[in-house]
Design brief:
Elements: H1 2-21, E1 28-33, H2 43-58, E2 63-68, H3 76-85, E3 90-94, H4 95-99, H5 117-124, H6 127-140, E4 142-157, E5 172-175, H7 179-187, E6 191-194, H8 200-206, E7 211-215, H9 216-221, E8 230-246, H10 247-252, H11 255-281, H12 283-289, E9 293-296, H13 299-336
Parallel strand pairs: 1-2, 1-3, 5-6, 5-7, 8-9
Antiparallel strand pairs: 3-8, 4-7, 4-8
Helix pairs in contact: 2-11, 5-13, 7-13
């Protein structure tokens, strides 16, 4: 009898021990991918840390956020594919990367659309931006949570001061492998050279390309000023990053977890926008301090660039991407000016 009670006690203890070892709820993991160095002076990383701190605290640890900076999970194309498949839960991807799986995002390559950061925010945060996000989700299964700044894009080069479209003639300008950017540079009389981002610093150092176009944030983070003497603050493109999440994963969260993720993205967006906008607005000072000769254009000079580039780029977008979405963004831009 004593032996039977002993065996029962041992068995019960083993069962209780195994049950206590099981988590009450399985912890959910968000793999968060971005492309900036893992430094708090980098807008993408500072915003990622902001997201992680908020979500983990707000969910009492039911969600764990793992940040993968500096392209550790692959290129923009690979991250987009991971978001579609669900192997990456959340990614912060620039508009060029998004357009690889959802062509309408190419419309953001229309040059000289926005008058200011506030003008861009009014379009992106308004009905147009929401409608585009819904269509992205419907077509790809990727939910667009927010738009954040990738900086206003400017031209730099190693040869001469650029003040008019004629000054661009003959220059070899590195562009991302995108037909929209190729059309833009061709319209200015320069020679577009499509080069992947990872090869760009070497191409500038070796003279494969005379110049490039990017935001101050990117110029600084990649130290492109080391190989570029001249900068022209023409502001031809307002670049942005989409905060993207796999929709199946998002729907698998509890209501409380979704609220935490929504709020975390909003906090991250604010940090991201504020840091990038601050650099944009101090572009002349920041680049001059790195030894670059910076040229600021008057509104009349910007109009020369706009008049040279918008018609051919618009024609390309209407015929090769989507006339519907091209018309919609131009209407939203006009409405946001009022």
């Amino acid at each position: 009898m004593r032996y039977t009670r002993l065996r029962l006690a041992i068995s019960l203890a083993a069962i209780l021990s195994s049950l206590s070892a099981l988590p009450a709820h399985a912890q959910k993991i968000i793999k968060y991918a971005h492309f900036h160095p893992a430094r708090m002076d980098q807008s993408m990383h500072a915003s990622a840390v902001t997201f992680k701190e908020h979500v983990e605290k707000a969910t009492s640890g039911s969600i764990k956020v793992e940040i993968y900076p500096a392209g550790q999970l692959g290129s923009a194309q690979q991250i987009m594919e991971g978001l579609r498949l669900g192997t990456v839960e959340l990614g912060v991807v620039h508009e060029g990367g998004v357009s690889g799986v959802y062509r309408p995002f190419n419309i953001f390559g229309m040059p000289y659309m926005f008058q200011s950061h506030a003008h861009a925010y009014a379009v992106l945060d308004g009905p147009f931006g929401k409608e585009l996000g819904e269509d992205l989700k419907k077509k790809t299964g990727i939910r667009l949570m927010a738009y954040a700044d990738n900086g206003v894009r400017h031209f730099t080069n190693s040869k001469r001061v650029i003040r008019t479209p004629d000054d661009m003639k003959g220059l070899k300008i590195r562009v991302q492998p995108s037909p929209v950017f190729i059309e833009l540079v061709k319209a200015l009389g320069a020679s577009p050279t499509a080069i992947d981002w990872g090869e760009t610093p070497a191409a500038l150092a070796q003279g494969t390309a005379d110049g490039q176009e990017n935001s101050v944030t990117t110029i600084m983070s990649a130290s492109l000023y080391q190989h570029q003497k001249y900068a022209t603050l023409d502001g031809h493109i307002y670049g942005f990053f989409g905060y993207l999440i796999n929709d199946r994963f998002y729907k698998s969260l509890t209501n409380e977890e979704r609220l935490a993720v929504d709020a975390g993205v909003e906090k991250a967006k604010v940090v991201h926008r504020d840091m990038t906008r601050s650099l944009d607005l101090s572009a002349k000072k920041v680049l001059s301090e790195k030894g670059m000769q910076v040229t600021e254009l008057t509104p009349a000079e910007v109009d020369q660039f706009r008049n040279a580039t918008q018609p051919p780029v618009r024609k390309y977008l209407e015929t090769s991407v989507s006339k519907e979405w091209t018309d919609k963004i131009l209407s939203a831009i006009e409405a946001a000016k009022k």
